[in-house]
Structures are given as C-alpha cells and as structure tokens.
Amino acid sequence: MKQLxxxxxxxxxxxxxxxxxxxxxxxxxxxxxxxxxxxxxxxxEEAFQTLLVSRALERLGYTVLPMKDLEPATEHLAIANxxxxxxxxxxxxxHADFYANSGGDAKLYRSPGxxxxxxxxxxxxxxxxxxxxxxxxxxxLKDPAIARLFDSDGxxxxxxxxxxxxxGCELAIERHxxxxxxxxxxxxxxxxxxxxxxxxxxxxxxxRPVLYYTWTPxxxxxxxxxxxxxxxxxxxxxxxxxxxxDTRLPNGRDYGFHADREQIVANRGFVEHNPAAAxxxxxxxxxxxxxxxxxxxxxxxxxxPQDIARHVDGWIRAHQALFDGWIEQARAAAGG
Length: 336
Hints:
The chain is built from 14 helices and twelve strands. By secondary structure, the protein is α/β, with parallel strands linked by helices. It folds into two domains: 30-117 and 261-333, Periplasmic binding protein-like II (D-Maltodextrin-Binding Protein, domain 2); 118-233, D-Maltodextrin-Binding Protein, domain 2, CATH 3.40.190.100. Strands 2, 4, 5, 6, 7, 10, 11 and 12 form an eight-stranded mixed sheet that branches. Strands 1-3 form a two-stranded parallel ribbon. A two-stranded parallel sheet has the order 8-9. β8 (158-161), α7 and β9 (186-189) form a beta-alpha-beta unit. α2 (47-59) crosses α13 (305-318) and α11 (275-283) packs antiparallel against α14. The chain is elongated. The relative contact order is 0.17.
C-alpha cells in the first residue's frame, strides 16, 4: 500500500512543481533577495516602458520597489551614486551630458542597442498658418511680423511651448534660440509640459496659430498629427554641441535634433554583480508605435497607476513568447 501511495503522489508532486513555472522556482531566480529601485522623470508617460522592465526583473526574482520621479539630470546622478538602480528612458543624444556629468561608463551602464528606436523631436506649427504665410523654417521667426502670429500674451513675441526646467530638451531649445538669433523674437514658455500642451491644443482647436516643441514617442502627435494638422519646422543649420554629430536626418531634413534612441541606464556596480539583469537590459526592445499607442490611451483618461499596470500586463500577454524568451536568456546569463 505504501508503494502504491508513493507511485500516485510522486507524479502529482512533479505536475505541481512544473505548474509553478521556471520563473518561480528558487533555483531559477537570480535576483532573489536583491532590491531594485527604478526611476522615471515627472513625465507620467514614461511609466509604461519603466514598468515593463520592472515586470521582467520581478520574473527574475528581484524585489522591485515602486518607481520614483526625478528629473533627468538628477536621475542619472542618483543611479550613478547607487541611490537608485535603473531608468528606462535615457535618450542617447539628448541626455549625453547628463550621462557624462554623472560619471559616464565608470559609474553607469548603458544598454547596448536601443530599448526604443526611432525617437524624433523638434518644433511644429499649425499647418494652416504654415501654408498661409509660407513658413518652413524656424529662423523665419526672426521676422517680427511672423513672430507676432504666435503671440498668445500680447507682448509681440512668439510664444513657444517648450520644456520643463531640468529636461535635456530645455538646454537644446535655449541653445537654438541663441544660435538662430531668436532670443528677441521668441519666448520659451516653461512649466508643466502637459499643462502647457493642453493650452496649446485648446488654442489649435479654436483656430489660432500654435508653435510648440514635442517628441515621439508621445501622445501629442496623435492629437496634433504631423503632415495633417501641423508641420515640422526645419532649422537653417545644425546647432550641434561641440563634437556632437550633425542633426540632419537621413531624409535630408534638419529639425535641429538628432534622430535618437531610448536606452536603459543602470548603476554600473549593480550590473557587474547581476549578469541576469545586464543580459535582460540588453535584450529588451519596445516598438515606438507601442509606446505611442499606450501614451494615447493615457491622454484619453486611462492614466491611473492601475490603468498603466493593465496596459503593461496586456502587452506582455500579447508578446508572451518574446517576453519569456528574454527571461530565459537572462537566467542563462546567470547560470540558471
């Protein structure tokens, strides 16, 4: 009887063990006992790509804390100093100074390749005004008559919806205002970008001219559609940083900013002691189109933490084989 019971119980035990899945067996959890602190900027839309990385780390056994908000310059410093573990929205070109000033490769790790490829940024105006006045380049705003078209507060200067203080794009815009001789004709409006863009979109819907900076991936270009509602403005020349690459795009146009990529940046010591996480960071890829689609859902009201968590979990289910492949390769890097 004892042998019969053993023969019956053993298969059931094995089935139960297999049902747990490879990510939940202790011997396959290289991150077990290690706590991770993710960061993002104050931009709520960065939560999607950050939480996706957190979900993958959790599958490897890491204890992942809720993400904290810091502006990009401070994010890089916090990660370099070991006060946080990673960020998933480092722009290779736009944040190059932040990376270098925080210790560069000696203190930081930047994932090889791109987490998200094909990020574009620049200045746009409404298509109606562009066609009516033949505006194609940013430096045409040196003409006071052209600048006044975009004056929203009555001071005779064009009002450019720009970047939050502390963002990488703030430095670029300020450099452009000097390089293109626009300091006297253009006001760089700063504050909460989301609030400023809500006001900009409201003006557009009223049929008034608008001038703003934006980037992709971001939901703005789903509401103000380039080529349909608005047009990109070119710049007269590349006002690049010393030693930096030219900003002209492969199509020959120059919007003043490099074609960029988003990468995962992590603490160097953490990566060196966690080969599974290092391998994961190098494997993960998220299409720009998927970020745009999720960001649009946020702009339409699905912007609570539980909404974003649902979006992430839905993305994983839709790409389960790919996601599981990342996990298995990361485990293998740790010898699991």
